[in-house]
Amino acid sequence: MAERVRPLVITIDGPAASGKGTLARRLAWHLGLRHLDSGLLYRATALRLRCAGEGATNVTAAVAAAAAVTEADLTDAALRQPAISGLASEVAAIPAVRTAVLALQRAVASTPPGAVIDGRDIGTVVCPDATVKLFLDARPDVRAARRAADHPDSDPATVAAELAERDRRDTVRAVAPLAVAPDATVIDTSALDAEAVFAVALAVVRRKAGLEP
Ligand code: CDP
What we know:
With 213 residues, the protein is α/β, with parallel strands linked by helices. The protein has one domain (8-205): P-loop containing nucleotide triphosphate hydrolases (Rossmann fold), CATH 3.40.50. Helices cover 51% and strands 12% of the residues. It is built from ten helices and five strands. It has a five-stranded parallel sheet with strand order 2-3-1-4-5, sandwiched between helices. Residues 16-17, 21, 38-39, 42-43, 85, 88-89, 92, 119-122, 166, 170 line the site of cytidine-5'-diphosphate (CDP). The site of cytidine-5'-diphosphate (CDP) has 17 residues, from helix 2, helix 4 and helix 9.
């Protein structure tokens, strides 16, 4: 009988603009795993909701939007708009929205050879049995500067305020708040460039997953 190999699942949680996406893409490519940016599921929910002319106060519409999200939605460039970031964190606080997008995330995690999934609650709620859990953080001013650089036409002070408000909402919400899993390795990326973060993270992954260097 063929040996059953457990998928290699690497979770990367952390606040906005902490470097999760860049690291997740690089690790996935390097290790031959799939990458899922779970934030896109909430962004796609927000975009569908806005296209339906509704807001996050309409919980029924928000849950219907979340249930309709498919992987094909996740490539839409409009998902990165700042207005969608805010609405995404509003819909993400609705418990039934989170339930609606859980199956897709777990399906990705359970498909061999495995995946790198980044978000806020991946190591704590979505994949509590992940092989390796990372938590990326950085000083708020560093994260605000990074996000402002992504949106050169935006006012940096507005970008910083929106980021702070989103962090607050993501941290205080009752269900699946942004939190460090007890068994996660925390990496502070404030003074590290993408290359250095990748090197630190890869060393942690190799050690924890028992991979050859
Ligand atoms: O890219 P950035 O870090 O700015 O945000 P994102 O990862 O695309 O997530 C957008 C929003 O989705 C966050 O502010 C959270 O409210 C929500 N989110 C979540 O609640 N849980 C996740 N696993 C991922 C994102």
